[in-house]
Amino acid sequence: MNLTKLQEWLQDSGNDVAYISDPTTISYFTGYDMEPHERIFALFVFKEQDPFIFVPALNVEEAKNSAWNGDVYGYLDSEDPWAVIADKIKHRNTTYQKWALEKNNLSVSHYQLIHAQFPNANFDADVSDFIAHIRLYKTPEEIKQLQAAGQEADFAFQIGFDAIKTGVTERYIAGQIEYQLKVQKGVMHESFETIVQTGSNAANPHLGPTMNQVKPNELVLFDLGTMHNGYASDASRTVAYGEPSAKAKEIYEIDREAQQAAIDAVKPGMTASELDSVARDIITKAGYGEYFIHRLGHGIGKEVHEYPSIVQGNDLVIEEGMCFSIEPGIYIPKVAGVRIEDCGVVTKNGYEPFTHTGKELKYLPLRD
Ligand code: MN
Ligand code: MN
To answer: Right CATH number for 2-135 from 3.40.605.10, 3.10.450.10, 3.40.350.10, 2.60.40.10?
Structure first.
């Protein structure tokens, strides 16, 4: 599986050892998920020997019973983890000199501690880009998990729409969503903190949820997602509570047109930059280009944000199996904000979204 690709990369790039330090990457290669906090959690992969994972002693049993079938070594809080790691590696092979690190993850202090154990080794190589590259292409099994996470997001929207009434706070609505996801869907946790924004709060894309109360005749913006078997969902919908202003309705329709045009335009062979332009041109021509203040989308998988970045100037060619969001937004400070977002997968000739909640402007009746 994926670990074989990493071993091939070691051979091809002339490196002896890969030290994988990012828990998400370890989960990607081993199927074992763990949050080590300040303790040490690592995967060591060798060009020709068996890999092993290294965990705190209190996680050894759990790791052995996980999807990972390889060796597991632990260390006690009273031990020096770096000395234990060095001992296990020297036990396998004493001549390893060329190490590849996850430079976009490993802290400088951890680098210095491992380096001190192998003072003559070379630590120049970076395996981060290779890992980001293979994670660009999702397997059918990964796509299944992303679709299941998308269904949970669709359920969450329904809970959120039903929770809207005059006077309730953004935090109350977010709380209802998260509570019902746990109770009804068994969701362990969200992929990021649920965003609920009423009225002009929605003009600040990442704000809240605050103690702002729902008022009649405003837009309400939701941006939410769950983790499903280690895969994330991320989706946004904006709905009307009562009858919003003409301006609010106008920007909603422009955003919806831009989002749909981008979804319809996705084709293997086009660049990320070209796709961004499809939505951006529509919003710009309508006179709101300066209010679309972020890229069109981002990759999704084990993390809410990964590659590819769907942004102006990115010449990366879109290919089948890539998964990313399409999420144009229009944010007019102190007036209103709209974002409509789906994540989906690039198919042979198009794009299949993971979320299906309707995008015609939904008018919710006023409720006390
Ligand atoms: Mn997103
Ligand atoms: Mn989002």
So the answer is: 3.40.350.10
Distance 314 CA to ligand 2 centre (A): 20
Q: Among 90, 99, 93, which Cα is nearest to 122's?
A: 99
State the distance from the centre of ligand 2 to the C-alpha of 235, rounded, in angstroms: 5
Q: pLDDT per residue over 296-318, tens digit each? A: 999 999 999 999 999 999 999 99
- Give the distance (Å) from ligand 2 centre to CA of residue 28: 22
Exposure pattern of 276-304 as b/e (b: 16+ CB <10 Å)? bbbbbebbeebebeebbeebbbbbbbbbb
pTM comes to: 0.93
**Every domain range in the chain assigned CATH 3.90.230.10:** 138-364
Neighbours of ion ligand 2 (CB under 5 A): 223, 234
Q: Among all ligands shown, which has an atom nearest to the Cα of 206? A: 2
Considering the domain 138-364, what is its CATH architecture?
Alpha-Beta Complex (3.90)
For residue 143, what is the DSSP state?
H
Ligand closest to CA 224: 2
**Interval between CA 101 and ligand 2 midpoint (Å):** 30
Residues of the chain with CATH 3.40.350.10: 2-135
Question: Of 216, 176, 248, which Cα lies nearest the Cα of 364?
Answer: 216
Distance 234 CA to ligand 2 centre (A): 5
Q: How confident is the model at residue 1 (pLDDT cuts 50, 70, 90)?
A: low
pLDDT single digits (tens) 43-60: 999 998 999 999 999 999
Ligand 2 center from residue 128 Cα (angstroms) = 25
